[in-house]
């Protein structure tokens, strides 16, 4: 009985021990699973924290982006625009009724410094000045406000600033211009005297009193660029009276083209002399260094304004156009060549290229079979042969902005051919001074502001 009892006790103890072992093993497994879940949860939490911190800090390590960029003439400054609505939280956006808040500023593109701080309203460059809508005119270098818009005409716009004078456009009933002295604010020519005013030089302005819809121009197209008379700024005397001609158009070098009964003439506004009488040619196009391109019965010629001599006889070429630096591009049978006006020498003979255009820095862009190359004018040799680029857009500081054959934009060093900005990385490139460019990121970017500045030359 005792042994049986002891056996029974031993069996029960064995059962209890085995149950305890199973219990502890299960507990260990459960603890391992709990620890693993805890580790996974902590890892996931840490990853989420890293992602949130990365999203917050990412913009701090990226160049600031803008909605749009407008370069100044010197290309060391730019007007930049930002969307303040994108920076607002939900409550602020709701309170603003989802109106679009666009702020503008003037910055130094080389340093990113704000020369004129951000404020609401569009900006416009006019030489050394910037016009701020609904505010006035500021001097860029000093930031000083040099002209204020009066309350009664606060919605007006500035059309131009030159020679210490402002052409201001009224926003009232019907468009009218006034000419105003920048320093004193005095109205030299008051509103409602002329519908439109444009500077010809420091002494004279072009004026218009109607839209000239009745006198369309076959070559100049938009009638808004045509005027009716020339007025002396200081005396107010009409040097070319309104109504004397159908239209008056400034072509440069102190000359205006006057049109009457579908024929044109050329007048020197300083002397009032009729340099080319009306009716001698159908159209007078553009002038460079005293040589003007004229059209008669759809045939073109290049003449010397002073002597009236035909430098390139009429009808010799299908078309002639100035590209500056004393050269003209001539066209014959859908091919073009380049001629030096003084010597008459063919720098590039006709028949080699389908199109030629000037790009600057002593270079011309030549087109052949749908691709463009670069030619040195002085030496006449190809710097970039045809066949590599669909289009060459800009050259400056030894850098070339171009489109490859798939129309992806990039930037290369002219001397080495090295891709400073690889093709296809950005949607657009805008050159500035001192090795700075503005780049537009692709439209699929998360940020709404797609323009930023980068340095490509140290």
Structure characterization notes:
The protein is mainly beta. It has a domain at 25-61. The protein has a 7-stranded antiparallel sheet with strand order 29-30-31-32-33-34-35, with no helix packed on it. Strands 1-2-3-4 form a 4-stranded antiparallel sheet. Strands 5-6-7-8 form a 4-stranded antiparallel sheet, with no helix packed on it. A hairpin with a 2-residue loop joins strand 30 (363-368) and strand 31 (371-376). The longest helix has 56 residues, at 2-57. It starts with a helix and ends with a strand. The model is unreliable at 1-13, 95-99, 212-216 and 218-224 (pLDDT under 50).
For the structure shown, list the relevant keywords.
458 residues; mainly beta; 7-stranded antiparallel beta sheet; 4-stranded antiparallel beta sheet; 3 helices; 14% helix; disordered N terminus
Topology:
Blueprint lengths: L1 H56 L10 E4 L5 E7 H4 L2 H6 L6 E7 L5 E7 L2 E4 L2 E4 L3 E4 L5 E4 L8 E6 L2 E5 L7 E5 L5 E8 L1 E4 L4 E5 L20 E4 L5 E3 L6 E6 L2 E6 L2 E6 L5 E8 L1 E6 L2 E6 L2 E6 L5 E3 L6 E6 L2 E6 L2 E6 L5 E8 L1 E6 L2 E6 L2 E6 L5 E15 L2 E6 L4 E5 L5 E3 L6 E4 L4 E5 L10 E5 L3
Antiparallel strand pairs: 1-2, 2-3, 3-4, 5-6, 6-7, 7-8, 9-10, 10-11, 11-12, 13-14, 14-15, 15-16, 17-18, 18-19, 19-20, 21-22, 22-23, 23-24, 25-26, 26-27, 27-28, 29-30, 30-31, 31-32, 32-33, 33-34, 34-35, 36-37, 37-38
């Amino acid at each position: 009985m005792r042994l049986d009892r002891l056996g029974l006790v031993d069996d029960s103890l064995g059962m209890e021990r085995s149950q305890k072992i199973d219990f502890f093993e299960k507990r260990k497994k459960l603890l391992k699973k709990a620890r693993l879940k805890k580790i996974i949860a902590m890892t996931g939490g840490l990853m989420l924290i890293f992602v949130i911190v990365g999203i917050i800090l990412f913009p701090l390590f990226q160049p600031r982006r803008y909605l749009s960029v407008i370069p100044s003439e010197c290309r060391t400054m730019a007007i930049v625009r930002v969307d303040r609505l994108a920076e607002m939280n939900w409550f602020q956006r709701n309170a603003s009724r989802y109106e679009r808040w666009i702020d503008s500023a003037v910055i130094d593109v080389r340093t990113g410094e704000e020369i004129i701080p951000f404020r609401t309203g569009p900006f416009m460059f006019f030489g050394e000045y910037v016009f701020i809508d609904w505010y006035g005119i500021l001097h860029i270098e000093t930031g000083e406000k040099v002209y204020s818009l009066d309350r009664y005409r606060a919605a007006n716009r500035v059309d131009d600033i030159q020679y210490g004078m402002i052409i201001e456009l009224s926003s009232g009933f019907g468009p009218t211009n006034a000419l105003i002295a920048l320093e004193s604010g005095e109205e030299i020519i008051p509103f409602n005297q002329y519908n439109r005013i444009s500077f010809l030089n420091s002494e004279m302005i072009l004026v218009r009193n109607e839209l000239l819809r009745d006198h369309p121009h076959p070559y100049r197209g938009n009638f808004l660029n045509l005027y009716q008379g020339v007025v002396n700024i200081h005396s107010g005397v009409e040097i070319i009276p309104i109504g004397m001609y159908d239209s008056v158009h400034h072509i440069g070098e102190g000359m205006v083209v006057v049109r009457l009964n579908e024929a044109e003439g050329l007048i020197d506004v300083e002397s009032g002399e009729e340099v080319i009488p009306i009716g001698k040619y159908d159209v007078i196009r553009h002038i460079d260094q005293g040589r003007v391109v004229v059209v008669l019965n759809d045939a073109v010629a290049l003449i010397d304004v002073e002597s009236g001599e035909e430098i390139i006889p009429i009808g010799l070429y299908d078309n002639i156009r100035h590209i500056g630096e004393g050269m003209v591009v001539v066209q014959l049978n859908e091919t073009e060549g380049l001629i030096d006006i003084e010597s008459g020498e063919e720098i590039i003979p006709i028949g080699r290229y389908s199109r030629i255009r000037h790009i600057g820095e002593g270079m011309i862009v030549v087109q052949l079979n749908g691709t463009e190359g670069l030619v040195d004018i002085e030496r006449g040799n190809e710097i970039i042969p045809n066949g590599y680029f669909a289009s060459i857009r800009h050259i400056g500081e030894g850098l070339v902005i171009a489109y490859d054959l798939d129309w992806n934009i990039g930037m290369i060093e002219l001397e080495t051919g090295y891709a400073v900005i690889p093709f296809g990385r950005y949607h657009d490139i805008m050159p500035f001074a001192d090795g700075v460019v503005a780049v537009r990121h692709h439209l699929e970017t998360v940020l709404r502001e797609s323009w930023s500045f980068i340095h490509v030359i140290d």
